[in-house]
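Recall that a protein's primary structure is simply its ordered list of amino acids. Everything else, from secondary elements to tertiary packing, is in principle encoded there. The following example makes that idea concrete.
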Amino acid sequence: MTGRAAGPHVIWARPERTGRGPRPAYTRADIAAAAVRIADAEGLDAVSMRRVAAELGCGTMSLYNYVPRKEDLYELMMDVVGGEHELWEPVGDWRADMLRMAHQTRDLMHRHPWLPRMISGHYGFSPTALRYLEHCLSCLEPLTASAGAKLELIAMVNGVVTTAVSNELATAERARTLPWSAEQEQQARMAYLGGQLATGSYPRLAAALTEAAGPVDLDAVFQRIVERVLDAFEPKSPGV
């Protein structure tokens, strides 16, 4: 094992151990799992090298022998939760496969509420991230599109999932911190909105909200949003 890196590096290009000396007390998987436990229980801001070292029962400085930077720790965390993706044999229907992956990613983000904050191309080179991309591209084999367009499709679906889950999590978190019930909060806001619409200043908005009246099914909304992204990549008929 080596100590802190002196310059830019990719954690995956660094051997976990050199093969010399005594067997390390911990693996990267052990360290990542400890960090994920902390983040799941207390949020991403609670994750620090000191806190992970305490979770493992080792000294903070010794942890740097395994993980030179906090950014590397984040990358290890992303890799371990990315391994929860189920990679199946594509069914030959690229839309169905991508919808299935979108729903699976949504569930993954709800299990690990800190994950949407971490979504970045910076962490896109881990072993599980590469397997995920390869799997998505295999699902998209039936789609007539360039490789670049397929990568854009994957990125757009991930962006939609991340945004949707971020909003869902923020709404749920706000409801937990209110000094009154979420229903009371909603009633107060709807009463204010109704008063504003009754002024006649927002006729188009009033008509749209009247048409869309009724309880919101977040699962159905999520499904429609992802489907609309996929619609944009359907091959057009000749001459269209």
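The mean pLDDT is 88. The chain has two domains: 11-82, 94-231.
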